[in-house]
Write the C-alpha cells for this entry.
Amino acid sequence: PSDFIVKERRCKRSDFSVRNGRKQQLQASLFIPNGDVDKVIVFLHGNGGSRRDALQLVELVLGAGFALVSFDFSGCGQSDGDFISLGLKEQEDLDAILLHLSKIQPTLSTIFLWGRSMGAATSLFFAAKHSHRITGVIADSPYACLKELALQQANEKYKLLPEFLLKSFLKVVQSRIKESIGADIFTLSPREQVRYVRCPIFLAVGRQDELTRPEDVKSIFNSLGDSKGMSKFYQFEGGHCSIRPPQFFTEAIDFIQSIVLRHLQFRSKSQTAKSPKPKQVMASITLEGFGKHDASTTQTSGHKVSSGSIFRSQTFNLSKENDDPRVSRVLIDITRGPPLENSSRLSKPIFEGLSRRSSIDQNSASRSRNNSQKHSESRATGVSKDTRERSVSGRSTPVSSPMMSNQKKRFPGTLGISSRHPSGIFG
C-alpha cells in the first residue's frame, strides 16, 4: 500500500525509476515515515533476489525512525538488463540510486547500506570508494574472493576431476563472462577492498553457511583497516539462503543506532568546541627554594580577556609547604594561549620574561610573614615590598616593576598595566 501505519506513525511508500550509467532503467521503492527524517537504509538484494526482499525490514526500519530504499539491480526484478556482475556493475546502480535520492529527498543525509550476499559485496565495494558518503554498512554473508569461491564450488560439484582440469574449466567460464559483460569479475575481492573502508561495518554470516563460510567472512573482518575498531563480526544460526532469525535483525539495528548516537555526540562536542569563548590569561606565582626537597606549590588564577583588555580583578594566592627562609627568589610568570585581540592597542610590555630576583635573609622573610597577616588577600611569603600588590578601589592591581633585560619573552604581543588605572584596562 502507498499509505500505512507503523507503531502509530503514518508512513508512505512511493516508487520511482532511475537510469544508470549504462542507460538502463532501475526500479526502486522508498518507504518513509511522516515527519522529519534524515536517516535512510538502502537495501541491496542478493543474486536471484529483488527489492521485494526488503519487505521484511519495513516495519523494523521505519519503526526505528529510518527511511528505507530498496531497488532492483540491473538484470534483476523489474529493472532493465540481462546480466548481473556479482558486485562490479551493481556499484554503478547503487550510485545512480543515491544521486537520485539526494534530489528527491535531500534531507536524507545519513545513509546506511544493508546488503545480502551479492548486495553485501556491492556495499563493501561502494563503501571502499565512497566512505565519505556512507555512515555505516550491514554486510550479510558477502563472499571474500570470487575466484576462490568459484574454485571452491567447482571442487565440491566435480570432486572426481583433477584440480588442473577445474582451473582450465574456470578460465573458459571467466573468458565467456568477460565477453558478455565486458569485465573480468574473477578479480573481485571484498577482502582486498575493505582495508579502504572508513565507516563501521557489521559483518554477519550463518554458522551453517556452506557458500560464504564463516571463516571466509571472518577473513574479511580481519582485513579491515581503520574501521575495524568500530566494526563487528556476528554469527547466527542458519545457512546462506535461510530465513534470518529475529536476533540478527535486532543486533543489526542496534549497531546502526549506536553509530547514530556516536555521531550525535560528536556533533554536540564539535558545536561546543566551535562556540565563542573568552580568551584567558593564566598567571602564576611560584616560590622556588635551594633544597632538592623544598617543594613548591603554584596556584593559578585565570582572567578573561575581551578585545585586548584585562579585567581589573587580579588577585594571586600563593602557598608553599614550609616557610623555609632559604627561599631565595620569586619567579612571576605569565603564560597564555592564543594572541590577544587588538593587541596593537596595548601599551608597554608587562612581565617580559618576568623574572625578578630578591635577596632574602632571615629578617626580610620574617617581615614578609608579618605583612602577610595584614594583607590576607596576598599571602606571598618572602615577596619583596616593591612587588607586593597594591589595593586600588577595593580591588588589587599588580604594581609594574623593572624587569631584567636578559630574560627571554614568554609570549608574543604587548600588554600594558598601570597601577594608577583603577580598572586595569588600557588601550
